[in-house]
Amino acid sequence: MHGTQEPSLLVESLAKLISKKEGMVSVGLEIRMNELSNFIENPTKENLLNSRFFSKENTDGRNGQSWFNLILNCSKDKNINLFFFDNATQYENRDSIMYVGIKNQKLQFPNNKIITISGNIHNWRIPFNEMTTMGMNCLEDSLNFPYDKVCSITHTYSEGTMLNGNGNGLKLSTIPFEENIYSKSIDYENYLIFYDFSKENSYNCTYYSKKVNHSKKIKK
Description:
It contains eight helices and seven strands, in the order H-E-H-H-H-H-E-H-E-H-E-E-H-E-E. The chain is an alpha/beta fold. The model has no long low-confidence stretch (mean pLDDT 94).
């Protein structure tokens, strides 16, 4: 879910762990390349802050503090290859173009593990309202993305806050605590659980946070 902190922190933690243990890793975000062009050419904090992406109005929660921190922190690690894959024009299928962006990164750095962060529909492994998702496009390309090597994660929580778009502009939402199967099953407040790799599931992994925290607006 856009406008939350935990997914960004998970991506950064995994990227740094792979960087430390295995070497190079690719990290991709659901952002248009041309909205970060100056930063891509010269990755400084100032260029990131003044980029088109982080200067425009925050309408869906993506261009908040969490994604800013994720990009900036990953850019400081020489083993992390950042890329941005939301580059469709108005006449193109957005999820298909996202897949092409990820595939191009795979072809450029064939030995890298790839971690992406996007809205929780794009990484579905099955159709969403009869629409072919980015995740489906990847799985259909078994040459570049073998079926048993792709992990699609959804984020689940029991309470907290999020700052994202709900159709009426950016809004801070509060989720009151509600016990669920994830809070009942294991005593840990944060964990990953992997499950059936069959094609019937939207995801094959859940990242559970007992409490979710909203991503703050960028302060210039």
